[in-house]
Amino acid sequence: MKKEIIAVGLGEVLWDVFPAGKRLGGAPANFSYHLAQQGFRAELVSAVGDDAGGNGILKLLAQKHVSTKYTSRVPAPTGRVDVAVDSKGVAAYRFSENCAWDYLVFSPENEKLAKRTDAVCFGTLAQRGPRSREAILRFLDAMPASSIRVFDVNLRQNFFSEEIILGSLERCSVLKINEDETPVVSKLLGVNLRSRETFLDAVFEKYPGIKMIAQTLGKAGSIVRSRDGTHSEIAAEKSIRLIDTVGAGDAFSAGFVSALLQGASVREAHFHAAKLAGYVCSQAGAMPDVPPAYRFSKA
């Protein structure tokens, strides 16, 4: 019998609150959603409050085929973030504090899931509180050595630290980082950011567990480089009618992972990631319906 592939979003789930209304969001939830859209078993390890907001999130996730078996209820308000989108479609975020996903736990059931997980995506935001950080790190440490562990840096407000970033770099096999985050991480590593290659070389040298680095560059596109020297560079699609950038980076991570899980090359996975991220930029919110044309299929 063929082994079931399990992909996990690990961290926050919340409401993205726009001036025109609210939408389901949170980077790990977005990742899980897109893996489900690509046909994988998608789990979300997170937490919601025992409130109307939590009820709504669990209902929507079920409708979107994301399993909530490992999304717990805790005595804290369901998370939310106020989102402002400027005239260029670029989003700015203001997160609520002391909310449900600050209280993740590493249960025996979560440990069993971790040992069976093929791919995970996690970031810095859900590690802002010590309890959730411990749960996230223990989950990562319990995963198989061969698994794909994506650290999507996602720096938000002041909810990150040197300890969080360096600890995450030690545990990931894929680093996904954007152009604004690169100088921050470069400074922590003590690297003079003379060029992009200087940064990539330093990361590979300092963290032998990292096999690939994906760097998104906004309108300039994105690059992916692997430890073996494989290099892929893709320009941004100029024909996209930009609506907003909410969730585009999460779609990129999910697209990249979904292709790798199906045996794609680095270049094939990169192309699919960029294509899916571009589509999400052309839609409102982080979890639009994904047409079949944006689902990876290895020829």
Structure, described:
- This protein is 34% helix and 23% strand.
- It has 299 residues and is α/β, with parallel strands linked by helices.
- It has a 9-stranded mixed sheet, sandwiched between helices.
Outline of this structure?
By secondary structure, the chain is of the alpha/beta class.
Beta strand count: 13
Q: Helical content, roughly? A: 25-40%
The helix-strand sequence is EEEHEHEEEHEHEHEHHEEEHH
Question: Which class best fits the helix and strand makeup?
Answer: alpha/beta
Shape label: globular
Mean pLDDT: 93
Distance between the termini: 23 Å
Count of DSSP H/I helices: 9
Contiguous runs where pLDDT drops below 50 for at least 5 residues: none
What does the largest sheet look like? 9 strands, mixed
Strand content: 15-25%
Radius of gyration: 18 Å
Q: Write out the strand line-up for the largest beta sheet, numbering strands in chain order.
A: 5-4-1-8-9-10-11-12-13
